[in-house]
């Protein structure tokens, strides 16, 4: 079903035909693996010209079918990165990437060719690649190309209905705090400020810009009724943004299913039970919509967050691993 790839094509924008082929490749891999190889941001960037570097591996050279794909986000080196997002002017620590090989072409050197091309394209910059789920080939490819495990993201879930669903606790917000729905056109800047403060140490979430926020609130899945914000004395101090997945979810199960998309509390408002109150408000909303299951992603070493979710009935279902490559010398 094809030979080893020749030269990897690297481009800043995909043609309509290339985009369609990459979409089909990602879906074929997801059907085989039970999880998408591209995260939400990488999927969005497929259609944004010059927002990321696309690496295409073809069977038998330039005229062959696309059998492997990777994207590479290089760190910002100016006040504006290639996606148009405002950065702080300081280079990020590493380039980030995702990589996927069509199931029918695995074991033929496609993954290694893409991994080597990512390292070569990044040059003196370290590279980090996510492996979504415990795919046995990911660890082998990492070892063969000089990548080491660097970070883990836990995928957790709980039932909202049925015999295994624990009742949600009745948690009121701290005194003086009210919880309401996000209002588009009013809350964007305040939310961005709280998000940046709450996730200041997070390598992705804390860097969200207005463009990132607008891309999500403009998506078909966005529903402000499921986006909760907490206020105290007119100041936004926390939030819980939920999401509803209508298609198949991780593991190949049919949707719909809910997600704790992102939950954060401003540093000066932490420690008083607001995070738990926000979590329960969002979970109750998803439960009342009749959704059977809710899921979330959380840093596996964030003991406070993992502990909160475990107390709310979540259990770990899978782990994603980030592999890191340091440049030679």
TrEMBL record:
Q: What class of enzyme is it?
A: transferase
Which positions in this protein are listed as binding 1D-myo-inositol 2-(L-cysteinylamino)-2-deoxy-alpha-D-glucopyranoside? Answer: 40, 204, 243, 259, 297
Return the EC number: 2.3.1.189
- PROSITE patterns associated with the record: GNAT (PS51186)
Residue positions annotated to bind acetyl-CoA 2 are 263-265, 270-276
Ranges for domain N-acetyltransferase come to: 24-169, 177-329
Q: Where does acetyl-CoA 1 bind?
A: 99-101
Which catalytic reaction applies to this protein? 1D-myo-inositol 2-(L-cysteinylamino)-2-deoxy-alpha-D-glucopyranoside + acetyl-CoA = mycothiol + CoA + H(+)
Please name the InterPro entries in this protein's record: Acyl_CoA_acyltransferase, GNAT_dom, MshD_Acetyltransferase, Mycothiol_AcTrfase
Matching SUPFAM superfamilies? Acyl-CoA N-acyltransferases (Nat)
One Pfam family named in its UniProt record: Acetyltransf_1
UniProt keywords, alphabetically:
Acyltransferase, Repeat, Transferase
Under Gene Ontology molecular function, one entry of this record is:
mycothiol synthase activity
Family note: Belongs to the acetyltransferase family. MshD subfamily.
Question: Subunit structure, per the record?
Answer: Monomer.
What function does this protein fulfil?
Catalyzes the transfer of acetyl from acetyl-CoA to desacetylmycothiol (Cys-GlcN-Ins) to form mycothiol.
User: What is the official name of this protein in its record?
Assistant: Mycothiol acetyltransferase
């Amino acid at each position: 079903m094809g030979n080893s790839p020749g030269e990897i094509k690297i481009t800043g924008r995909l043609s309509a035909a290339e985009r369609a082929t990459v979409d089909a490749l990602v879906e074929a891999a997801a059907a085989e693996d039970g999880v998408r190889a591209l995260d939400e941001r990488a999927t969005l960037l497929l259609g944004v010209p010059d927002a990321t570097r696309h690496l295409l591996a073809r069977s038998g050279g330039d005229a062959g079918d696309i059998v492997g794909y990777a994207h590479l986000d290089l760190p910002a080196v100016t006040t504006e990165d290639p996606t148009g997002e405002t950065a702080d002017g300081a280079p990020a620590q590493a380039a980030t990437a995702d990589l996927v090989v069509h199931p029918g072409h695995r074991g033929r050197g496609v993954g290694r060719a893409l991994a080597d091309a990512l390292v070569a394209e990044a040059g003196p910059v370290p590279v980090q690649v996510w492996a979504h789920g415990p795919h046995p080939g990911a660890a082998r490819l990492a070892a063969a190309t000089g990548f080491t495990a660097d970070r883990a993201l836990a995928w957790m879930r709980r039932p909202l209905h049925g015999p295994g669903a624990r009742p949600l606790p009745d948690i009121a917000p701290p005194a003086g705090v009210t919880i309401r729905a996000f209002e588009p056109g009013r809350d964007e800047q305040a939310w961005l400020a709280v998000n940046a403060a709450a996730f200041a140490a997070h390598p992705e979430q804390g860097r969200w810009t207005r463009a990132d926020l607008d891309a999500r609130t403009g998506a078909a899945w966005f529903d402000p009724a499921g986006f909760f914000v907490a206020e105290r004395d007119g100041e936004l101090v926390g939030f819980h943004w939920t999401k509803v997945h209508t298609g198949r979810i991780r593991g190949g199960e049919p949707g719909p299913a809910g997600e704790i998309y992102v939950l954060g509390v401003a540093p000066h408002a932490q420690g008083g039970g607001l995070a738990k109150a926000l979590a329960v408000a969002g979970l109750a909303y998803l439960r009342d919509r009749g959704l059977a299951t809710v899921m979330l992603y959380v840093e596996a070493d964030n003991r406070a967050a993992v502990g909160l979710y475990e107390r709310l009935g979540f259990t770990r279902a899978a782990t994603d691993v980030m592999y890191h490559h340091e440049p030679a010398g």
